[in-house]
Design brief:
With 813 residues, the chain is of the alpha/beta class. The protein contains 34 helices and 24 strands. The chain has four domains: 207 residues, no CATH class; 275 residues, Glycerol-3-phosphate (1)-acyltransferase, CATH 3.40.1130; 181 residues, Winged helix-like DNA-binding domain superfamily/Winged helix DNA-binding domain (Arc Repressor Mutant, subunit A, Orthogonal Bundle), CATH 1.10.10; 100 residues, Arc Repressor Mutant, subunit A (Orthogonal Bundle), CATH 1.10.10.
Length: 813
């Protein structure tokens, strides 16, 4: 077939080049070059279409894969590389289309493997998706719906598809299928070939749903569906009785709330937005680094309902994550956005891009909370992926905020309707080398009133566009909510009520556990980068300055330590050297370079100290254990392995909630061992035959240890304030202790020049106090006042050893 129409393909090349722009999405096996060059490669497509073949050829060239139009030799026979599942639908219905030869080709290849045991041909599913336009809920005859219906289109419909949607074409390569595996496991007869084609057909169907989304429900249809929802109908009746008004009046209020909340997704807005954002990222960033995106494709392929739960650093998060998801070949999610973003013209644009809006508080408004819960449940029931921020708002300090659990609770309540698909949370770490709102954050933390978003702010942001370095999007380990509940609440399915899901007693504690797991997973997949590392190092110095050579040495040391003993396997670590990272950060104007007769000095201005502290806090949690190891080695002439591990385990357990650390005691022990082995290999630390650790006598290596040990200094000071005050004030009311701790923290911040909002944050201090209470270091008396327990002295002794004597004296005074 291909040989006969060779001239036809050549004639189509020019118009296809003008009309079609292919985006290639390839799974890891293709990108990593795992295909054997000695073995033949074949492609299977959905449709026998010249435009699909030429698009595939272009994509293969981009992906460095064999030309699909070339013949391939198998046992001395020249075969076509292409298998097609379907032929085009006949233009005139009385003509029945011929079946493709895919089954016969598959049978021939399987038979060839039965004859030649050294043969292992690879079949790559290649899905050519035109425009990614979802089908509509109602069977309308508009142009968009006709184009969206791409199941075996006629040649005339395909002409219009290419004409209107060609510039938004995606070619999705999936992991190759081994004919050898098929022949050995399922046999080489015709039934195996048919099974292979059925698998390929279902595989393509799942990919189409993942790329375009389920059938698109019109906004008005959503309103009608919600109004007949049993929970909302019952509430409208109750509200009308309680307020002595007509049900029509309450129904009108309900429609107004729905109109305020509901999105109005339009795929044309998303496609247009992709072009704008592509230009924007090239203008703003040196690149967007994406990690573990294949997880999303696997989940979509397996039919999971994906719920993205990213951290929240900037308003840029909404755009960046949506853009990356679309670039990975998946339909963009419906996004829960704060009602403050619903201003003209951004609000209507966001709404058409899939955003739905949420008020900051539902308190006291049953009608709003019920409608919002049922709207979210409807999104899940219809199969739309969703994105929401469990922190509620943007972090002003760079550390993860305590999670708001309302959206997670409503998500689990949606499961209690009896949804048959698994609901899976995907934690997402979003990181930047520059957050454009950082200056505003510091003003707000200093007491300035938060300004509302407006069109003028958008114009100002556009005017100030400049190079912001790199952005990072890391997809963490998915959390299957169904499996989570099976483990936490084995009998949770007994609470399923398709008509009106209730709020069982186990919901709140389970949601709290799940929320903490989400935040911990986000921190696990953090991204180290040059700005954050340099911020961490310079903030550990007395004067926020180092010589250039010293800074490069420290960067290399911090990087080498994480590579040898990483915080978590999900952590992404730069491949560049310390010198390369510093050169990049200098181009971003984040640091000041001064020259003297001895060389260059890298320092931070007063404003840079405030700004870069934000990026330091992004990654501080990843260096807690290494910092504690170095701190204990620095403060003890010798320390046993058991004592070293025990003390670090104690602190990690107390800091888990504050910094969302993931390590169990065994994980801490393993990481401490890896860190000690690394320090030994660097001739920084040594262990005696009796098992005691100590630092080497080299003063140069002591400088490395001192800086990394200093990273945990402020955390130890917070512990020192609490343990000292509790020993002096016991018994004391929790509220009084909170106030006293904050007062002393404020005083210390002035005396020790600690310009850190999180150091004097009342919530952060309260979190540590509650952690100490949970672990038994603080107990309550019969008046519910806090008193020190018998084990508090043990903790206080460890803390006192790790805090500078001057600081301890300041606290005591």
């Amino acid at each position: 077939m291909l040989a006969i129409h060779k001239l036809f393909y050549l004639l189509l090349r020019l118009p296809m080049r003008l009309l079609v722009n292919c985006k290639v999405v390839a799974d890891n096996i293709i990108n990593s070059g795992q295909l054997s060059p000695e073995q033949p490669v074949f492609y299977i497509l959905r449709h026998q279409s010249a435009s699909d073949v030429l698009s595939l050829r272009t994509a293969c060239k981009k992906a460095n894969l064999p030309d699909p139009l070339e013949k391939v030799q198998v046992n001395g026979q020249a075969l076509s590389r292409l298998l097609f599942l379907e032929k085009p639908t006949a233009l005139f219905h009385w003509r029945k289309p011929n079946k493709t030869t895919a089954i016969a080709q598959g049978f021939e290849l399987l038979n060839a493997h039965a004859k030649d045991e050294n043969l292992d041909a690879q079949l790559i599913p290649a899905n050519v998706i035109w425009g990614r336009t979802p089908t509509k809920e109602k069977n309308t005859t508009n142009v968009g719906n006709l184009l969206a219906d791409q199941e075996s289109p006629t040649w005339l419909r395909k002409f219009f598809i290419v004409l209107f949607l060609g510039r938004h074409t995606m070619v999705r390569f999936s992991e190759a299928i081994s004919f050898r595996h098929m022949a050995d496991k399922h046999g080489s007869d015709e039934s195996s070939a048919r099974k292979l084609m059925r698998i390929a057909r279902f595989h393509f169907h799942r990919q189409i749903i993942a790329a375009t989304g389920p059938r698109l429900m019109h906004r008005q249809q959503m309103f009608e569906t919600l109004l007949v929802n049993p929970s909302i109908k019952r509430l409208i009746t109750d509200e009308a009785k309680n307020k002595s008004v007509s049900e029509a009046e309450i129904k009108k209020q309900a429609l107004a709330i729905m109109d305020e909340i509901a999105g109005d997704y339009r795929d044309v807005t998303v496609r247009f937005g992709e072009r704008i954002l592509g230009w924007l990222w090239n203008r703003l960033y040196n690149g967007i680094e994406v990690s573990k995106a294949e997880r999303l494709r696997n989940l979509a392929q397996e039919g999971h309902e994906i719920i993205y739960v990213p951290c929240h650093r900037s308003h840029m998060d909404y755009l960046l994550l949506t853009y990356v998801i679309f670039q990975q070949g998946l339909v963009t999610p419906r996004i829960a956005a704060g009602i403050n973003l619903n201003f003209w013209p951004a609000g209507p644009i966001f709404r058409k891009a899939g955003a739905f809006f949420i008020r900051r508080s539902f308190k006291g408004n049953r009608l709003y909370s019920t409608i919002f819960r049922e709207y979210l449940g409807l999104l899940f029931e219809r199969g739309y992926s969703v994105k929401y921020y469990s922190e509620g708002g943007r972090s002003r300090t760079g550390r993860l905020l305590s999670p708001k659990t309302g959206m997670l609770a409503m998500t689990i309540q949606s499961l209690l309707r009896g949804i048959d698909r698994p609901l899976t949370l995907v934690p997402v770490y979003l990181g930047y080398e520059h957050v454009m709102e950082v200056g505003t954050y510091h003003k707000e933390l200093s007491g300035s009133q938060k300004k509302g978003e407006s069109i003028f702010g958008v114009f100002k942001a556009i005017r100030n566009l400049r190079n912001y370095g790199k952005g990072y999007v890391n997809f963490g380990e998915p959390i299957n909510i169904n499996q989570f509940l099976n483990k936490e609440v084995p009998d949770w399915k007994q609470a399923i009520d398709p008509i009106d899901p209730q709020k069982p007693k186990w919901l709140t504690p389970s949601v709290n556990t799940l929320a903490h797991q989400v935040m911990t997973s986000i921190n696990q997949c953090a991204a180290l980068n040059g700005v954050a590392l340099i911020s961490l190092i310079l903030h550990a110095t007395d004067n926020k300055a180092l010589t250039k050579s010293e800074l490069i040495t420290q960067l290399d040391f911090f990087l080498a330590l994480q590579r040898a003993a990483p915080y978590h396997a999900e952590l992404t670590i730069p491949q560049e050297t310390g010198a390369e990272l510093l050169a990049h950060v200098i181009t971003l104007n984040k640091v000041t370079i001064n020259q003297d007769s001895f060389g260059e000095i890298v320092s931070l201005t007063d404003s840079a100290i405030l700004e870069l502290r934000y990026y330091r806090n992004n990654i501080l949690h990843t260096f807690i254990v290494p910092s504690l190891v170095c701190r204990l080695l620095e403060r003890n002439a010798k320390i046993s392995q058991d004592d070293l591990v025990t003390q670090i385990q104690r602190f990690v357990e107390l800091l888990k909630t504050d910094l969302f650390l993931w390590q169990s005691p065994d994980d801490v022990s393993s990481q401490v061992e890896d860190i000690c082995q690394f320090l030994t290999s660097q001739e920084i630390a040594k262990q005696t035959k009796a098992g005691f650790w100590s630092l080497s006598n080299d003063s140069e290596t002591h400088a490395k240890v001192r800086l990394i040990a200093e990273c945990v200094s402020e955390t130890m000071q917070r512990f020192a304030i609490i343990t000292t005050l509790l020993g002096r004030l016991s018994p004391v009311a929790k509220s009084e202790l909170d106030d006293k701790v904050v007062a002393i923290a404020q005083r210390l911040s002035v005396l020790n020049n600690i310009n850190a909002p999180e150091f004097i944050d009342k919530k952060a201090q309260s979190t540590l106090i509650l952690a100490m209470k949970e672990k038994g270091y603080i107990v309550t008396d019969e008046d519910d006042k806090l008193i020190d327990s018998s084990t508090l002295g043990l903790l206080k002794g460890s803390v006192s050893n790790l805090v500078d004597i001057e600081v301890l004296q300041s606290i005591m005074r």
